Amino acid sequence: MSRKENNTAGILAGLLAGAAAGVILGMLYAPEEGKETRKKIKNKANDLKEEAKNKYGEVSEKVKDQYGNISSTFKETANNVAHTVKDGYDKYKDQIVSKTTDIVKDVETGLNDLKR
């Protein structure tokens, strides 16, 4: 995950924690019956839990997308490098075979001249 995504996740977690703390403190100091306050806290906690799940899902999807993009780019680059290396190998192999053939012909010609 990139630094920007780490910072975003950290900020998001801080905001959610701050919101939860604010809600809980507000409810605890509200002039209501304890049972009602506990019910509100439980409901708000469930809401925050759902919100956190949704945000986690969004961040998770972004990470998966980035991984897919990076993976595709890496595969494409690796294929390009492999083709470039193969093309270079084929080019130089053909040149070496051609030069070797020329040398063999020259040696054969030299040997034939010596035999005469």
Automatic annotation (TrEMBL):
Keywords: Membrane, Transmembrane, Transmembrane helix. SUPFAM superfamilies: Ribosome recycling factor, RRF. The chain crosses the membrane at residues 12-30. The keyword Transmembrane applies. The keyword Transmembrane helix applies. This is YtxH domain-containing protein. It comes from Chryseobacterium edaphi.
